[in-house]
Amino acid sequence: MNGFLPLVVDQALAAAVRAPSPQNTQPWRFVVDGPRIDVWLDRDRVLAVADPAGREARLSCGAAIGNLTLALRVNGVRSRVRILPDAAEHDLLAVVSIEGNTRPSTLDRRLTEAIYRRHTNRRPLSEREVPASARASLRSAALGEGGQLEFLDASGRYAQVSALVRRAETELATDPDFRAEAAQWTGRSADCPDGVPTTGFGPPADVPGVVSLRSSHENRSIPPRQFEQDPVLAAVLTRDQGAAADVRGGMIMERVLLTATAEGLATSFLSQPFEARSTRARLLAAFRDLGQVHTLLRIGYGLPTRMTARRPAPEVTTVRSAPKVPAW
After folding, report:
1. Which residues span the membrane (predicted)?
2. Is the pLDDT of residue 32 over 90?
3. Are 84 and 94 in contact (CB under 8 A)?
4. Which of 48, 141, 175, 265 could form a disulfide with 259 if both were Cys (CB 3.0 to 4.6 A apart)?
């Protein structure tokens, strides 16, 4: 990083890099130029086999933007996000502009604290029911960001989508190119700043479940365990489509994930049907009447697991000129 940043902006960038990303690739870069923070897609960290169009990578960058703006707001800084419409052709995805002061809400503080506890839980969840109040909070989180969270058991899509997850996992588990790419990013040591360490894996399932977690994230050195047989599944959607909607979808997704963390819920992703050639179009078609589906979430109660490491914010940030944070 060149130059020095106000503490508020430092903290916001540190929050941004805590966003989730496929295989913990962290496909983002930031350029700070006065009151403007540009968010760039790092093409070198886009998964060529699993995510050739960069859809999941843009989703991750959107999640980073969500953390960035939330952390600014909790420190009294108002910002505006402009998502660029040609995000598919241009690696500059969005511009975050610092515009003045604001008063953070209690919810802002609660969700900002959740940034540093949120993590992907690939282990078995309990059969404890997710209450209606928690579901309502998650739906409200999506709506507050201009999106929608659809619980599959309530929409009648549960059987169809879970079958697509199983089919996709079977296809990917036997795809040598996918397996080679996954191997590059998984099984790393716990202190590695990117990729998924073995400590973040889950145990093998002792009996097949309704949905399949990634075989590439199984720790076969520990005994098999029974996974929940009726997991809560939900889809994050936007009404619009395209590359810009991917970025917006990531902001919505992160708001939902942070709300889940604040509610004491564990979450993980079911990305297989987006990544397998035979299921991608069918999954999109299953939600076409609602808009663009961006991600599938598994939600429930579980024991905490270790958080994965991140590259430090200075490593992914260039400072052209430091902003002057508005004073009260």
Report:
1. none
2. yes
3. yes
4. 141
Q: Model confidence at 132, in pLDDT bands (50, 70, 90)? A: very high
Q: How confident is the model at residue 43 (pLDDT cuts 50, 70, 90)?
A: very high
pLDDT, tens digit, for every residue of 302-325? 988 889 999 999 999 999 998 887
Report the alpha-carbon distance of residue 277 to residue 50 in Å, rounded: 9
- Same fold flag, 7-117+310-321 and 132-300: yes
Edge-to-edge strand ranges of the sheet holding 232-238: 148-151, 232-238, 292-300, 266-269
Give the span between the Cα atoms of 261 and 115, in whole angstroms.
Answer: 8
Q: Give the start-end residues of each E strand in the chain.
A: 28-33, 36-41, 77-83, 92-101, 148-151, 186-188, 196-197, 232-238, 266-269, 292-300, 317-321
Amino acid at 102: T
How far is Cα 57 from Cα 45, in angstroms, rounded to an integer? 8
Overall fold of domain 132-300: NADH Oxidase (3.40.109)
pLDDT digits (tens, 9 = 90+) for 185-196: 999 998 999 999
What is the arithmetic mean of pLDDT over 4-22?
A: 94
Strand partners, 321: 33
Q: DSSP labels for 256-270?
A: HHHHHHHTT-EEEE-
- How far is the C-alpha of 200 from the C-alpha of 194, rounded, in Å? 12
CA-CA distance, 196 to 183, in Å (whole number)?
10
Ordered by start, the domain boundaries in the chain are 7-117+310-321, 132-300
Beta 186-188 vs 196-197: how paired, if at all? parallel
Dihedral sign from CA coordinates of 39, 41, 45, 51: positive
At the topology level, CATH places domain 7-117+310-321 in: NADH Oxidase (3.40.109)
Cα separation, 76 vs 34, whole angstroms: 18
